[in-house]
Structures are given as C-alpha cells and as structure tokens.
UniProtKB/TrEMBL annotation:
The gene is adaB. This is methylated-DNA--[protein]-cysteine S-methyltransferase. Its EC number is 2.1.1.63. It comes from the Bacteria. Belongs to the MGMT family. Residues 89-168 form the Methylated-DNA-[protein]-cysteine S-methyltransferase DNA binding domain. It catalyses: a 4-O-methyl-thymidine in DNA + L-cysteinyl-[protein] = a thymidine in DNA + S-methyl-L-cysteinyl-[protein]; a 6-O-methyl-2'-deoxyguanosine in DNA + L-cysteinyl-[protein] = S-methyl-L-cysteinyl-[protein] + a 2'-deoxyguanosine in DNA. One of its GO terms (biological process) is methylation. Residues 7-85 form the Methylguanine DNA methyltransferase ribonuclease-like domain. InterPro entries: MethylDNA_cys_MeTrfase_AS, MethylDNA_cys_MeTrfase_DNA-bd, MethylDNA_cys_MeTrfase_DNAb, MethylG_MeTrfase_N, MGMT_N_sf, WH-like_DNA-bd_sf. Transmembrane segments: none annotated.
C-alpha cells in the first residue's frame, strides 16, 4: 500500500483575488481558479495523488501566499518558492518552459513547442498547458494564440486578462 501524501491548503484572499492554494511538504502543488471552489482542489488531488489527505494549514502555506501577495500587490516578477509538480514527463517539460517566459511577455503555443524541441506538438502543448495545476506561479497565462488572441485558460479568460494586465500587458491588443 502506498503512503498517504499530506496536502496542506489554504484559501488565499487579497483584494479581488480568492484562490485555493495547496502544497505538500516538498513544495507548492496547486493554485486554483480565481473564486474557484474547494471541489476544484479535491478533484485535482484525487487525480494527481490518489492516496492523499487534505489538511487546512494557513501557517504552512504562508511562504507561498506571501509571494502571491507580493505578485498581486507589488508586481513580484519571479517566484522563489519550491514547487512539487505532478504530471507526465511531457507536461513537466512544458511547465518548465512556461517558467522561462519573462514577466510581462507573451509567447505563442508554437514557441513553447519549439522550446521543448517538439515543434509539431503544438496541440499537445496546449493540452499540457491546460493541465497546469499551479496557476500564476507556472505562468500559463502568458501563452496566447498565434493570431494574438487570448485562448483557453483553466482559470477562465477573465482571470487570464487580469493577470496579463497586472503584468503590464495591454490586453486591448490581445483580443
């Protein structure tokens, strides 16, 4: 029988933001949609870690929520907290590439495919980006369609717009 993974969570709230946030003893593993519900976290942990226990622990999540706060309020451009990402080898490669996108910039899905040296895997890259469990910190909001339009985002297009605007992107040019 596999060992149960403890997943500590909190509800991060700041200004108009309300995000379920979770971490294991290794690092941040989940940031939910803005104003998402607890079931979003439960569904994700059920898939990623079948043997888990969710435990609310605001104190354990304090280092993570402090950096989220700084990002939202003061324009923190990079995160230093450890991550504990659960995904396939391909997904992990895509998520790592996302973390290389500079603050305030946008890339195309095809750019990410090139970065991971799989130029024909644009659709698979899109699916991997859609499966990103750690919104904001793994900045999938910085990826847009080749035509310059905002495309799908697990947190919803409104959240994507808010994040890009927070980073100083003129979202009016991204329709």
């Amino acid at each position: 029988m596999s060992k149960e993974t403890m997943v500590y969570w909190t509800l991060f709230t700041r200004n108009e933001w309300s995000l379920y946030t979770a971490a294991t003893s290794t690092g941040l593993c989940f940031i939910g949609s803005n104003h998402g519900n607890f079931e979003e976290l439960e569904r994700w942990t059920g898939k990623a870690m079948p043997q888990h226990r969710l435990v609310r622990d605001d104190e354990k999540l304090a280092p993570y929520t402090a950096e989220l706060s700084e990002y939202i309020e003061n324009g923190r451009s990079a995160f230093s907290v450890p991550l504990d990402l659960y995904g396939t080898e391909f997904q992990l490669a895509v998520w790592q590439a996302l973390m290389d996108i500079p603050y305030g910039e946008t890339y195309f899905y095809s750019d990410i495919a090139e970065m991971i040296q799989k130029p024909t895997a644009v659709r698979a890259v899109g699916a991997a980006i859609g499966a990103n469990p750690v919104l904001i910190t793994v900045p999938c909001h910085r990826v847009i369609g080749k035509n310059g339009k905002l495309t799908g985002f697990r947190g919803g297009l409104e959240m994507k717009k808010q994040l890009l605007a927070l980073e100083g992107r003129n979202i009016e040019t991204l329709k």
